[in-house]
Amino acid sequence: MTQNTIAAISTPLGPGGIGIVRISGPNAFAILKKLFVRDKQKIGPIGKLAIERALNSHVVYYGHLIDPENGIILDEVLAIYMKAPKSFTREDVVEFHSHSGFVVLDRILSVVVNNGAVLSGPGEFTKRAFLNGRIDLTQAEAVIDLINAPCETAVQLASCQVAGGLRDVIQGVSDSITTLVASCEAGIEFSEESEIDQESYLRNIQKTMRQTIFPEISLLIQRQKDTAIFKEGLLLAIAGAPNVGKSSLLNRLVERETAIVSEVPGTTRDVVREYFSINGVPVIICDTAGIHDTNDPVERIGIKKARDHFNQADLVILVLEATREVNGFEKKLAEELGRSKTIAVINKDDLAEDDMVLSIQKQIDGVPHIRVSAKTGTGIVDLKRLIFKDLLSDKNITSRERITPNLRQRKILEKVLKELEQCVIAVETVQSLEVVSGMLNDVLRLLDEVSGNRNKEELYDHIFSQFCIGK
Ligand SMILES: Nc1nc2c(ncn2[C@@H]2O[C@H](COP(=O)(O)OP(=O)(O)OP(=O)(O)O)[C@@H](O)[C@H]2O)c(=O)[nH]1
Ligand SMILES: [Mg+2]
């Protein structure tokens, strides 16, 4: 399908044990034969002199790479030839495993390019695997997710899709809809001659859509929402009045002195963003300016930014002070944030009196809360546990639940669901098998976009451009 031969450094750049140059395309084997020698003794001053022994597919060979122009040895390598179609791209693929290091790899790549390859663009190897039918689009996209996976669960989710988990479910839904289209056609053809009237065909179609297709698609859409946290991370925002210890809490949670802490109220103005993890789940945490009534224009901008972050966050940590009653601003803020999205942290527990803490707890009745000292660290482990329980403990992912679409695929599935709903309405109102069949065919075309029908160049260019070069 593709004519040229591409090459790229497929391992991260920088010093390391091993670096890999990968080549894919019709010239791959010829390049291997020109550059690779198994027997160092046979290399003469002007390159390869002796006839080399045969190189078999899927065998690892030890030898040296030379520049055929001048016979200079580039590196000691392992070489593998994977004959088409038994390779990642379904084309002839060659890999050179050399010492890593930018100069070594760059020299090898230059010589490969001088001898019949072109430099690959981002994701071009995976794109070829897709275009040559080795993987579908759900699997190709999962390769990006696998490379970028920030935690173990994200790896499990991506691996499931790389193995074709989503592809098979989408295929199953497609097959069910195709069966419905066939039943429409049968109904149109035979209802005049047989006892079964059009209405019973329509009833059956409606039943299958309601009982099997709708729930299956709805479940996939819901799973994308539930698992997005594992791919993108949990967004936490810290809220509260000035000087309650928000920045101290951020520093304590991330175990670094990132944010400025001082006894001066209004220290934090801009949003401070940091990363850490809870039980392996990536967390992005934002410290914000203290919320209060102020005429200071800079502080007001900071407060506006803080509120924007509360809206975007998956969870807001409302910090209160254990040494004083909850003030009006804080009560209002707790109400604004809503119970489902808030954990109250009663900070400065090292200075607390139990009566005061009891009074605070009453005032924030209903909001999950915890006593903490950002200064000494007490309560921090329990706070992490509470955050995890609140957001993640019900997301214990079983193997079946690992089948999950990404955002692009979810958006298509939402459209599919809408079109199917229209189809059910048509079954009830128009009551025509021809109309329903036409609508179901439209749904099938839409579903095709999830797994990719291999002729939407623009979409694929966009998707594969998100890959790194060499993948
Ligand atoms: N005793 C005690 N002092 C604390 C604790 N947490 C913070 N502080 C002190 O409270 C003061 C304010 O702390 P910050 O973390 O800067 O408070 P903030 O909420 O970020 O303040 P702004 O950025 O001004 O809104 C500092 O003097 C901290 O040392 C704590 O748990 N116990
Ligand atoms: Mg601060």
What does this structure look like?
This protein has 471 residues and is α/β, with parallel strands linked by helices. The protein folds into three domains: 6-120, Gyrase A, domain 2, CATH 3.30.1360.120; 164-215 and 408-453, Four Helix Bundle (Hemerythrin (Met), subunit A) (Up-down Bundle), CATH 1.20.120; 233-395, Rossmann fold (3-Layer(aba) Sandwich), CATH 3.40.50. It is built from 15 helices and 15 strands. The chain has helices at 28-35, 102-114, 124-131, 137-148, 152-162, 165-190, 198-232, 246-254, 297-312, 328-337, 354-363, 380-391, 407-429, 433-451, 457-464; strands at 6-9, 18-24, 36-37, 43-44, 47-48, 60-66, 73-82, 93-99, 118-119, 234-240, 272-278, 281-287, 315-321, 342-347, 369-371. It has a seven-stranded mixed β-sheet. Strands 11-12-10-13-14-15 form a six-stranded mixed β-sheet, with helices on both faces. α4 packs antiparallel against α5 (152-162) and α6 (165-190) runs antiparallel to α7 (198-232). The protein is flat and about 85 Å long. The mean pLDDT is 88. The structure holds guanosine-5'-triphosphate and magnesium ion. Guanosine-5'-triphosphate binds next to α8.
Structure characteristics:
471 residues; Gyrase A, domain 2; Four Helix Bundle (Hemerythrin (Met), subunit A); Rossmann fold; 7-stranded mixed β-sheet; flat; binds magnesium ion
With strands numbered from the N-terminus, the spatial order across the biggest sheet is 3-6-7-8-2-1-9
- The pLDDT mean sits at 88
> Radius of gyration in whole Å, from Cα?
30 Å
The level 1 CATH classification of the largest domain is Alpha Beta
**Distinct small molecules bound, one entry per kind:** guanosine-5'-triphosphate, magnesium ion
Oligomer: single chain
Task: Give the helix/strand class.
Answer: alpha/beta
Low-confidence stretches: none
Helix content estimate: 40-55%
The ordered string of helix (H) and strand (E) elements is EEHEEEEEEHEHHHHHEHEEHEHEHEHHHH
The CATH architecture classification of the largest domain is 3-Layer(aba) Sandwich
> Total number of helical segments?
15
- Main sheet makeup: 7 strands, mixed
The gross shape turns out to be flat
Number of domains: 3
